[in-house]
Amino acid sequence: MHILGAAAGGGLPQWNCGCENCNLARAGEIPAQTQSSISVSGDGAAWAIVNASPDIRDQLRLASHLHPTDLRVSPIKSVLLTNGDIDHIAGLLTLREQQPFTLFATREIQNVIAANPVFDALAAGIVDRRAIALDQPFELVPGVMVTLYAVPGKVPLYLEGDVVDTQLQGEQTVGVHLESAAQSVHYIPGCAALSDDLRTRIDGSDLVLFDGTLWEDDEMVRAGLSQKTGARMGHMSMAGPRGSIAAFDRLRIGRKVFVHMNNTNPVLRPDAAERAKAEARGWTIGQDGMEIEL
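Above: the chain sequence. Below: its structure as tokens.
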């Protein structure tokens, strides 16, 4: 498994942001990060991408294991979507080059894609779109079985109405359970709360890559960048008595990695006190290019 992108929507630096982290990243003083995505393989030959980031072209350029093996022969055999957020689907348009692969997503997310004619660039008959039911295992690529399951979240911003349910559980936001011969892994880049069902599901796992969008729920408000809290955006924060760090303390997880971090999150700075606190509690801060053996 490779982390292709460890940042949340907008990446680091975000194009229109002059916050401390973005300025440090532009100056080369902290690592830049692209938007949320991972690649997975069971045999090292056939690969799947989980979430098609808007940054996918650069991510693929930097990932030698995903380079073409011959003239128009790609090792990428499938793409899996965990929700319909722009930072997880916009990269599909980069993959429109008459290249066969299978697009896996829940029925509701497939309907979101189908409703937007721009995605017809993924030509029918070339890209096989498969709707996946929750809690039904399927083979993502040879040697990797996957089960999708509901996690608390919300619909994408562009589908929000007047009333927004930020604890919605269904097919709009899912976690991914990846099982190989050696390990049990969960990838959950978006999550609003660690429900009892979710605790039970991930307890005892070898590895969990979890939503690390914000350090504190109101950090974007305090920074003057937004009026929305993390909870309003459908994301569980790291810190505090109700944060993910505290919640995971009671679980038996082999390795814990934060992904999908917003450009404002102080853990993106290697020398930050917040990063040291997270690492002291057993967490790894995910980074672009990080390789994790399954």
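The chain has one domain: 2-285.
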